[in-house]
Amino acid sequence: MPFPLASTGSSLGEQAPESLRLRQILVGAVPRRLRCARTTFLQRTIRYSVLSAFQVVCSVVVPDALLPEWVPNAHPLIVHFPIALVFVAVAADALALWLGARWRTGREVATGLYVATGLSAVVSYYSGTWAADTVTVATPAAAETLSTHAFWAWYTMVSLGLYAAVRAGGLFVASVRGRRDLHALLFAIGVGTLFPVYKTGENGGAMVYRRGVGVMQTQTAPAASPSDASSDAPSATHSVPPDSTRPGAASSQAAGSKRK
């Protein structure tokens, strides 16, 4: 169930600027127990410093000059990295669990992929908060979908980040690293991280393809030309049936033969 939108005075806050409304939507996606009632100046400074740092990272990874003119931001490009990496990490972890001692570095490889997934999820989440300022959210349904997408994106970032930290820490504990049953348990938890990834992608796709957020131009059917309209219309001319098939043709022929 999506978190409620942050209060804006109305359904979408007609009096608030566009960027302020989107930030309120994104803040409303974070669980309230993790948000302070009053934010100090130091907390605001740290938060905006982190956001600015990730904006710089995103601009370095995908500069605006490399983006086509029909792409509003780099988030659609960055967001595919954690999606691809988490599936590769799960596949590598499954192979390492199956091969066991036959692949001595299997756990290290899978753990490295999970760490890369967690880091890319953090960059992807903050690139999404930056990207929200570059699109227009015009309807309450689109705003609700954006809130749900941000909610699951936040949980994806947290779950992948914490799981990567646990896996990385387990490599330095001999009792954990040498037990295959713990490896199987950690593998099952890793498979569970695919669910928030799926929900994030589902709502992100619905936001674009169903709500039209970030769509620069919609498809329009070409206008039909007069020649096409005339060719599509049913023909007004009908072929005249032969005399032998017209009603009364036989009687007229018989009358003519009698006169002869």
Q: Which stretches of 5+ consecutive residues score pLDDT under 50?
A: 1-16
The total of helices stands at: 11
User: How is the biggest beta sheet arranged?
Assistant: none
Shape: elongated
Question: What is the terminal-to-terminal distance?
Answer: 96 Å
Share in helix = 55-70%
Tell me the structural class. mainly alpha
> Taking Cα atoms only, what radius of gyration do you get, to the nearest Å?
32 Å
Secondary-structure element series: HHHHHHHHHHH
Mean pLDDT: 74
Q: Could you give the count of β-strands?
A: 0
Number of domain units: 1
What are the main properties of this structure?
260 residues; mainly alpha; 63% helix
How do you describe this structure in short?
The protein has 260 residues and is mainly alpha-helical.
Structure overview:
The chain starts with 17 loop residues before the first helix and ends with a helix. The chain has one domain. With 260 residues, it is mainly α. Helix 1 packs across helix 6 and helix 5 packs antiparallel against helix 6. The radius of gyration is 32 Å and the shape is elongated. The chain is built from eleven helices and no strands.
